[in-house]
Amino acid sequence: MPINLPKDLPVIEKLKEENIFVMDSDRAHTQDIRPLEVLIVNLMPEKEKTEHQLLRLLGNTPLQTNVTFLRMTSYQPKNVSSSHLEQFYAVFEEIQDRRFDGMIITGAPVEQMSFEEVDYWPEIVTLLFWAKTHVTSTLSICWGAQAVLYHEFGIDKEALPQKCSGVYPHQLLTPHSPLVRGFNDTFLAPHSRHTTVGYDKILKQPELETVAVSDEAGVFLIQSKDQRHIMATGHLEYDATTLRDEYERDVAKGIPCSVPENYFPEDNPKNVPQNTWRAHTHLLFSNWLNYYVYQQTPFEWSSTK
């Protein structure tokens, strides 16, 4: 089924080239169907790349989905035009009276700052309070996952001695969880972060369940036992070349960094990296939309309190 997007969103043409079923808003209005409403809080600096990555995944499920992008008002991104934000992104005041079946909170390049130092942290706090009564399930990624763990469950992030960057094997701890239905017992996923969350702290939180971990990268998939929060500390949504782009960017800036682990063939940055995590990425997003959003959300929000 299609994702329904604003008619002139630039990424639509890229999605069509990948045979992702896209329906613009004009045609969607003629459909007699109750699509899922998903809010994407895009905090990544290169917003159009993140749009492409996430919409590709939402558009590859059998569920029809309306997508709304949300931006922060307290920070002006440098890598996207103001016209793009104004045309395709809403602000909180414009959506606060709406209800959403699902919400995605992306990562953000602010993890080495304390949460309270982030310009838009008050907006994130407001958003998470609002989501308790306006969103069925939230999928948060990397810094977004850390923000949820901190605000909702009192678990702060911890600095790593060096950046965790690479593609790592993970083991399922709860293989019967609907979130990882269809996953291999061991699977690969990319990570790119300077901080982590302590596994011991998560184990002490009775409201949380660890779904998957990595010996090298630590805790990866966590869910709240009420299934309202799904947290991924890595970046399954990344394209094959995203870690390469980040590495080359840091090298060009003179930032000390190591070659991403287990990523380039023969660990040689001159070799073209392969996407070895794609199948599990699609499974994760499909499972979340199906089991945690579609099967949990009311058909008519007005019928719920």
TrEMBL record:
Copy the pathway line from the protein's UniProt record. Answer: Amino-acid biosynthesis; L-methionine biosynthesis via de novo pathway; O-acetyl-L-homoserine from L-homoserine: step 1/1
The EC number of this protein is 2.3.1.31
Q: Which SUPFAM superfamilies match?
A: Class I glutamine amidotransferase-like (SSF52317)
Keywords assigned by UniProt, alphabetized: Acyltransferase, Amino-acid biosynthesis, Cytoplasm, Methionine biosynthesis, Transferase
List the InterPro entries hit by this protein, alphabetically. Class_I_gatase-like, HST_MetA, MetA_family
| Binding of substrate, residues | K163, S192, R249
One example of the protein's molecular function in GO is: homoserine O-succinyltransferase activity
Compartments it resides in: Cytoplasm
User: Where is the site labelled Important for acyl-CoA specificity?
Assistant: E111
Q: Give the annotated active site.
A: C142 (acyl-thioester intermediate), H235 (proton acceptor), E237
Name the top EC class: transferase
Chemical reaction(s) catalysed? L-homoserine + acetyl-CoA = O-acetyl-L-homoserine + CoA
Which residue positions hold the site described Important for substrate specificity? S192
- What's a Pfam family this protein contains? HTS
Major location category of this protein: cytoplasm
Concerning PANTHER family, the annotation shows: HOMOSERINE O-SUCCINYLTRANSFERASE
- Report the sequence similarity comment from the record: Belongs to the MetA family.
| Function statement | Transfers an acetyl group from acetyl-CoA to L-homoserine, forming acetyl-L-homoserine.
The protein depicted here goes by the name: Homoserine O-acetyltransferase
